[in-house]
Design brief:
The chain has about 425 residues and is mainly α. Helix 4 runs antiparallel to helix 13 and helix 9 packs across helix 17. The strands form 2 sheets. It has a two-stranded antiparallel ribbon with strand order 1-4. A two-stranded antiparallel sheet has the order 2-3.
């Protein structure tokens, strides 16, 4: 095992990797309950949705660990699953098989781009300052997700965001999660992020936030597998509907752009915590990471799980000491086991992971010191990324703002020579993306 994963070589151990894998899994476990709740609204049977979510996440997370040997985990992406349930399925006439086909086609297309080297080449063309900005923006985004899930910040019609109800049980659990994580980390307790989640789960029982499971074991249902190639009542396969529907093809392009850059930002964020980010912002083993991530999107469509992507919550496991693919393999195995015990796993709700996500966001803020804010070409695009990611609640939107701004500022300041050709390609692609979304 040491020869394959090289845990000791990277300053880790088998025990540390297993613990980090459990931390990552618990930080992502909410997807086991949330994703099926959305997929069922698209028409997928509940048991099939749970099976697709858990098995799809488990297989692709294990593949990520074995192929890239980095601590990243995959699962059905939030946001895309809502688009799948409420937009794609509606445009496809209520046929979730066709919606799955859109995801499948998008995944295949982006996999081809990776294999051709385009996705990695675009990452290499990004200025160093923008790479740091992506990490900072992701840190704020992760913290915002944690605070929202913990009920500490809420939507508000007047101010967009506001402080939540300090007396609500969810707020209290989120606060306990943050305090427990900080205290344990300050005391140098190993596994502080994991223990913070566990403390919050226990505290949530008397507060009514942690719901005790109605059962323990659940059966598996593979009826959604092969969704793009399953036919509707008229005998038409889902994938056949997509290739003849321009609107669905435009959706496939939009999702491809989102997936293309979301994973890039996530990889940088996790690499920073997992100590495989180079000083110039390059992510080690990025090609392997991108290949698995792209294949995961296609697998998500194939299984009916919506698009499977690399989760930014993976940074919690990396921050808890995960340095190798053994962290991912552990999380992946737990996802597959969870397919049989989904009622039990669902007690780990999003409020209990608030502390881990907020603390990871804090750790990622150190990158802000690496940006030259006195240089307009470096500072302004970086600021738009840092602000754009959390404020639009989208990694790809924030990156798009920064890329387009970089080209514009370079043009007006006479520094176009600094813009690499693929940055032009990315900026134009983002412009098209914003116009068609």
């Amino acid at each position: 095992m040491e020869k394959f994963f090289k845990a000791q070589q990277r300053g880790s151990s088998v025990g540390q990797e297993l613990r980090a894998g459990l931390t990552t899994f618990l930080a992502m476990a909410y997807i086991i309950a949330v994703n099926p709740s959305l997929l069922t609204q698209a028409g997928i049977p509940a048991t099939a949705a749970v099976t697709a979510t858990c098995v799809g996440a488990g297989i692709m997370t294990i593949c990520m660990g074995l192929f890239s040997n980095r601590p990243l985990a995959c699962a059905s992406g939030m946001g895309v699953n809502a688009v799948f349930a409420f937009s794609l399925t509606a445009i496809a006439g209520g046929d979730w098989h066709a919606a799955s086909a859109v995801i499948f086609i998008e995944g295949i297309a982006i996999l081809i781009l990776v294999l051709c080297g385009l996705r990695e080449a675009i990452m290499d063309a990004i200025p160093v300052s923008l790479r740091h900005a992506i990490s900072v923006g992701l840190g704020l985004f992760i913290a915002m997700i944690g605070l929202k899930d913990g009920g500490i910040i809420v939507a508000d019609e007047s101010t967009m965001v506001a402080l939540g109800d300090v007396f609500s049980p969810t707020f209290l659990v989120g606060l306990i999660s943050i305090i427990a994580t900080i205290v344990l980390y300050a005391m140098n307790v190993k596994g502080s992020l994991l223990l913070g989640i566990i403390v919050a789960v226990v505290a949530g029982i008397p507060l009514g936030v942690t719901q005790l499971p109605a059962g323990i074991v659940s059966g598996l249902d593979f009826s959604s597998f092969g969704a793009p190639f399953l036919a509707d009542e008229a005998g038409v396969m889902g994938i056949a509907k997509v290739v003849t529907n321009p609107t669905l093809l435009v959706f496939a392009f939009s999702l491809m752009m989102s997936d293309f850059f979301d994973t890039m930002g996530t990889a940088m964020a996790v690499a920073k915590q997992g100590e495989f980010l180079e000083p110039d912002g390059r992510v080690q083993n990025i090609k392997e990471i991108l290949i698995v991530d792209s294949a995961a999107a296609a697998v998500g469509g194939l299984t009916g799980a919506s698009s499977i992507t690399t989760f930014v919550e993976s940074a919690s496991g990396a921050a808890d000491g995960g340095r190798t693919g053994l962290t991912s393999v552990t999380a992946g195995v737990l996802f597959i086991i969870a397919a049989f015990f989904s009622p039990l796993i669902s007690i780990v709700n999003s409020a209990t992971t608030c502390g881990a996500l907020v603390f990871v966001g804090f750790l990622m803020m150190s990158e802000v010191a690496e940006i030259d804010w006195s240089d307009l070409l470096e500072g302004l695009p970086a600021f738009l990324i840092v602000a754009g990611v959390p404020m639009t609640y989208s990694i790809s939107n924030g990156i798009g703002f920064g890329f387009i701004a970089y080209v514009i500022v370079a043009a007006v300041t006479g520094q176009l020579k600094k813009v690499k050709p693929l940055m032009w390609v990315a900026a134009v692609a983002f412009l098209v993306y914003f116009l068609v979304v």
